[in-house]
């Protein structure tokens, strides 16, 4: 599963935000089920940042958000994200998408 969190950050806060988002990413990357991810800054709108993470499954992501270190060091940053859906299913050939039923959380 892919998680995309976007942030609007004034230029005057960019240096401090870079440190904060980098620390948050490192905390998430230490969690079980983390596959890969990264931090980016938009080339056309430099006040727009992204934290992208990929997880083995939705359960791994949800458990990561419940970890003590993540609650203290990453969740406060994540609460500042642009208010939009950010969790995505991987689209692979032959899979059914957006099934309206309880899913396996891993």
UniProtKB/TrEMBL annotation:
Looking at the Swiss-Prot or TrEMBL record, what is one Pfam family this protein matches? Answer: ABM
Q: Which InterPro entries match?
A: ABM_dom, Dimeric_a/b-barrel
* SUPFAM superfamilies named in the record: Dimeric alpha+beta barrel
Claim: Plastid is one of the keywords in the record: no
Identify the residues that the record assigns to the ABM domain, covering every copy: 2-66
GO terms assigned for molecular function: monooxygenase activity
This protein's UniProt keywords: Monooxygenase, Oxidoreductase
Q: Does the keyword Oxidoreductase apply?
A: yes
Domain of life, source organism: Bacteria
Name the UniProt record assigns to this protein: Quinol monooxygenase YgiN
Could you tell me which species this protein originates from?
Answer: Nocardioides daedukensis
């Amino acid at each position: 599963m892919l998680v995309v969190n976007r942030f609007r950050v004034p230029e005057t806060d960019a240096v401090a935000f870079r440190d904060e988002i980098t620390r948050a990413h490192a905390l998430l990357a230490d969690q079980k089920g983390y596959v890969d991810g990264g931090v980016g800054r938009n080339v056309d709108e430099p006040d727009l940042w992204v934290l992208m993470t990929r997880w083995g499954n939705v359960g791994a992501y949800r458990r990561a958000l419940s970890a003590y270190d993540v609650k203290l060091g990453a969740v406060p940053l994540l609460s500042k994200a642009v208010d939009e859906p950010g969790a995505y299913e991987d689209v692979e050939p032959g899979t059914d998408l957006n099934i309206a039923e309880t899913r396996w959380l891993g």
